Amino acid sequence: MVRRKRYISLFGVLIGLFVSVAFVFAEALPENKFGFGIEYLMPQPAGLSDIINIYSETGASWSKFNGPGTGWNDIEPTPPVEGKHTYYWDKVDEMVLTAQGAGFRNLIVVLKSSSKWGIKKIKLRGPLERLSAMQSTVSAPPNSGQNLKYYQDYVFNFVERYDGDGRNDLPGLLYPILNYEIETEAQHGVYWKGTADEYAVLLKAAYAAVKKANPEAKVILSGFAFFDIFDEGPRTEEEIARLINELPSRYPRGDIRHKFGEKFRSQLDFNARILREKDYFDLVEFHLLSYYKSIPGIVKWIRDQMAKNGYQKPIWMGDAGAVIIP
Q1: 260 three-class SS
Q2: I need a surface site. Which of 66, 105, 270, 298 has the fewest CB within 10 A?
Q3: Would you say residue 168 lies in a domain?
Q4: What is the model's pLDDT at position 23?
């Protein structure tokens, strides 16, 4: 009875979790192209190992690290002295070794341009942004060419430490970490305080650093979120425009979706802009934060943007917190 209650409780926890899956839509899915995981594995008040060991009982083998712990400020809280960096890896090392020891073989890391000294000054608006800033998960463009180079150094050394190539690797590393997302949901301005063009500059710098450390490592474009625009399937441009205009009226003022809805056109334009940087990422990720039936419409929109720019690349569904309704 105790065991049964334990697993019923665990199942209940899982239903409420955001789930991270790696899902490639380019072609018919071979069995090995689907991965079930947990979003996010991060330090918890009760202890990291406790929560990871509970999650590992699900059999999940994928997860994502999205700070606190992995951002530039976490790794390098003070500027270099005479060009010499001082990095602090202890927190990430613990997260990686604990997760891998519990069976999480495939880890995605979000690399963030968060810094108290190396980025443009951030103006915070609202409790969500202030909370994110306290956790060092708000990013901005580096504030000089030199600091952009220092950001690249952070990216290079991060990938080098966890890529399992035998050079300067974390002692005891069980599996290489080869998937790196550059910022997350940069479109809506909560986690990224910069323009799409500024994100493109950061992306190019990060891509060069990741590939220098390990050419086999994958660069993931900042994850996209789409609200409920595609809940009923693919949409024409005219339908998208109409639904964007209706977004604020569907959510009460004060609801965060109302605020985002008012700015969704610019968010969609942001995503379209960074999708033009086809030479500086390996795959695209979207976040399913609405009805599961929106997947075909989201994928078609991304595919159409790729086609406009003369390419196609894999698409992953990286976060899933959908409303599951039969």
Answers
A1: helix
A2: 105
A3: yes
A4: 38
DSSP state of 103: T
Structure token digits, residue 165: 């190539």
* Domain of 195, in residue numbers: 19-24+32-221+312-320
The tally of domains found in the chain comes to: 1
56: number of CA atoms within 13 Å, CB side? 15
Give which of 150, 98, 90 is closest to 119, Cα–Cα.
150
| Residue 293, domain member (yes or no) | no
Global pTM?
Answer: 0.85
**Bridge partner residues of 139 (DSSP):** 192
Q: Does residue 241 lie within any of the structural domains?
A: no
Encode 13-49 in three state secondary structure: HHHCCEEEEEECCCCCCCHHHEEEEEECCCCCCCCHH
62-65 β-sheet, strand order: 218-220, 179-182, 106-111, 62-65, 34-39, 18-23, 315-320, 284-288, 224-225
- pLDDT band for 278, please (50, 70, 90 cuts): very high
Q: Which residues of 157-193 are buried (b: 16+ CB within 10 A; e: fewer)?
A: bbbbbbbbbeeeebeebeebbbbbbbbbbbbbbbbbb
Distance CA(256)–CA(185), nearest Å, equals 15
Assigned domain for 60 exists = yes
